[in-house]
Every structure is written in C-alpha cells, then in structure tokens.
Design brief:
Shape: elongated
Helix content: over 70%
Radius of gyration: 22 Å
Number of strands: 0
Order of helices and strands: HHHHH
Distance between the termini: 81 Å
Strand content: under 5%
Structural class: mainly alpha
Length: 140
C-alpha cells in the first residue's frame, strides 16, 4: 500500500525528473535561439556588410566586431554547427545521466546571451543605416 508521501511525490523512483525535463526544455530553447542567431550571421550580416561596403560608410566599432564574428561563423560554419550540436548532446547526456543543475546554468546562460545578441545585432546595423541615409539626404 502506498503512503501519502509517495503519492504526492509521484511514486518511488520518479523524484528529480521535473528538474531534468525543465532543464531539457531550457536547453531546447537555447538551441533554438542559438540557431536563429547563427542564421542571422550566415544570411543577413553579409548583406548588410555589402551595403556598407558599397557606400563606403565608416562603421562604429561594435558593428565592425559583429561583422568580424559573422565572417568567422560564415567561414567556419561546417565546424561551428557540428560543435554546437555536440555541446548540446553532451549537455543532454549530462542532464539525464549526471546532474541537471550544471546544464541548467549553461542553458540559461546561452538563452540570455542569444537574446542579448538578437536584440543588439539589428540595432548595430540599423543605426549606421540611419546615419548613412541622413548623410545621403544632407541632413545634420
């Protein structure tokens, strides 16, 4: 006969699964956000780079840094993508076989950094474009 505590905790042998499932979901969101960030590096950044090169615009340092990072990702995408998948698989194995707390921190950190990148990257391209349009119009 089961006791009240074993019924409340989900039965014997089921403790700790909620943390693992939650960590796995956070890792999946982190992988999704990272895929979007890498997609912007692979597809959108080279187009903005060409626009800035055509006009010969002087770019701020953060925009130049973003373009350099994009160049590295574009040149080594065949290494970067398998490396990201490998880290994700290792994090899943660590989550389910060892302890989910370490990968929870990793997943949250990747989510945070990806969100910061996805918010700042468009700004780093839009602000120089606004300046470029103002220069073309002759506005101060």
């Amino acid at each position: 006969m089961e006791t009240t505590t074993s019924l409340q905790s989900g039965g014997p042998g089921r403790r700790g699964r909620g943390g693992q499932i939650g960590t796995t979901c956070i890792l999946a969101v982190a992988l999704f956000l990272l895929a979007i960030a890498m997609g912007t590096n692979l597809f959108f950044t080279p187009k903005f780079k060409a626009i800035f090169a055509d006009f010969g615009a002087a770019l701020p340092v953060p925009t130049l840094l973003l373009i350099r990072v994009s160049d590295v990702v574009c040149a080594g995408w065949f290494v970067v993508i398998p490396l990201v998948v490998l880290v994700f698989v290792l994090a899943l194995l660590l989550t389910w076989l060892v302890d989910y707390r370490a990968t929870l921190v990793l997943g949250l950190l990747v989510c945070l950094l990806s969100l910061v990148y996805l918010i700042t990257a468009p700004l780093l391209f839009i602000l120089p474009l606004v300046q470029l349009v103002q220069d073309i119009r002759g506005s101060p």
